[in-house]
Amino acid sequence: MKYKINGKCLEVTNEIEEFNDFIFGRFSQFEITNDKPDNFLYFKNNKVEMSINKQYKVLNNKVVKTDIYPIICNVIASLINNENNMFIHSVVVSKNNVGKLIVGNFGQGKTTLANAFTEKGYEINSTDQTWLQVKDGELYQKIGSRFGLSKNSSELLASEKSKKEIKINQIIRIVGLCDNGETSFNYNSNMYHKIKNLSQFCNWNCTMPIFTENVTLYNTNMFVRIFLENLADTEIQFVDVRGDKTKILNELGVR
User: pTM score, two decimals?
Assistant: First the structure.
C-alpha cells in the first residue's frame, strides 16, 4: 500500500499476516496514492527495512509486536515534522469544528476524558496521534488518527471525522484522572512551561527503546522546539488537570 503523507509517498508492505490490521489500521487516515514511492517501510518475516528521506535502517529478526507502534509513529513523524507541522501523541475532541487537544502519558486517561466529552455533544476527531499544524497564528488538527477508537479494540474512527480541519482553542494536559478524587486545575501561561510540558508528547517516538534490535530510529525532535515556540505564541489556553472527569468538564465550562 502506498500513502501520501505531507506531500511524500510512503510504500508500506507487510509479510506478517497476523499484524495486518494493526499495521494498516495505523495508516488508514492517510490518502492512498499511485505515486512512485520515495520512502518505504517493509515488515518482513525476519526483519524490518525502512528508508525515510533517503536514510536506510534495518531491524534484524521478526519484529516484536510492541515495537510496531513506535516504529510506525516514528516513520510518520519523520515525514510530517517541521517548523509548522508536528505529529503528537494526543486526542482531539470538537464541537462545531472548534476543538480541544488532550495530551497525557500513556494510560493517563485521554480516551476516558474524550468519551466524557462525547456525552456533552462533542465528537472525537483523533484517537491517539494527531497531525497538528500552526498557520496564521492558530493551531489546527490537519489529520487525526483513526485506529483504536475503543479500548482494546481495532475499531476505526469514521474517516470524515479524522480528516476534518479542526481549530484548536484549548490544550488540556492530563496529570491524572480518578473517579471522585480531588480535582485541581492549573492554567499555564508561562511559555517555557508550555514547551517543556508538551515536548515529551512530540519526542516519544524517537526516544522509546526498540526491543527487536538495538537500533536508533529516526530523529524526529529536531523541529520540536521551534514548533512549540510557534505554538506557545498563539492565544490557545493551556490547562493542566487532575481528578474527576465530571468535575473537570464542569470547571472547563462543558455542559
Answer: 0.94
